[in-house]
Amino acid sequence: MLRESSQTLIIESDFADEEFTSEWCNLQPNEVKVLVMNLREKKRSLPPFMKKMNKLKVLTITNYDVNRTELENLELLDYLSDLKRIRLEKVSIPFLSKTGVPLKNLNKFSFFMCNVNEAFKNSTIKVSDVLPNLKEMNIDYCDMEELPDGLSDTVSLKKLSITNCHRLSKLPKEIGKLVKLESLRLTSCTKLEELPDTITSLHKLKFLDISDCVSLSMLAENIGELGSLERLNCRGCSRLSELPYSVTELESLRVIVCDEERAALWEPVISMFSDLKLEVVLTDFKLDPLL
Fold first, then answer.
1. How far apart are CA 274 and CA 124, in angstroms?
2. Does the N-terminal or the C-terminal CB of the chain have fewer CB atoms within 10 Å?
3. Ranges for the Disease resistance R13L4/SHOC-2-like LRR domain (predicted)?
4. Per-residue pLDDT tens over the stretch 216-258
5. For residues 182 and 135, what is the distance between their CA atoms, to the nearest angstrom?
6. How large is the greatest C-alpha to C-alpha distance in the chain, in angstroms?
7. Contact, 73 vs 46, CB < 8 A?
8. What is this structure's pTM?
């Protein structure tokens, strides 16, 4: 089933490939600005007519089946030079390749409950080459073991959110190159054991969330160099038993969020600042329903 308004096209998965092709002949793809694909198949290729969507700005692909849908024909993204946002939900990406021009207008890319690990590990492309102006990246509930190649070279990035990626055990040292980064969220990355020392090069970072990183046992020794940091969330970091002295140098810090057990660590720091607030929250150990 295909539904189209003047600028938005919604594709449902209850049609065969031959119906797909014939129905598309009546469309004007060069006028579509928003494309929504709702899937339920094991495999689905991107439609060939996407080549003509030269005004497309938003692409959302969501799988409603229990199992991940394997996406094919991803090279068609090369033709979408005006694209600004991509969101992929519950899909599997077998590999990434690039043959066309960089998507210079893309500023937000989101993965939710996707199988991306093999694609990231075996990719022949660098994120910084194909998405040179990316400002926000969200990777949530994915099987990622390491950041995609070249992400740390994407110096335009301002927001990076990696949550509930339970296979991620470390961040690359190169993350310190993200000099424009203002928000870093690492919530519930349960195998993440440490933050690289180079994180202290993120001088524009205002928000750092390491909540529920239960394997994290220490903060970066020179974390005090994060001169713009305003809010730090370390709730549920059950292995965090001491703080580096440099936390006393976080002059812009206004809010610390932690659990009751970690509150005692921060109380001496709080006493050194007149405008620093400690928010103590209860730790909830309920199982995540999405796991």
1. 51
2. C
3. 152-253
4. 999 999 999 999 999 999 999 999 999 999 999 999 999 999 9
5. 10
6. 70
7. yes
8. 0.91
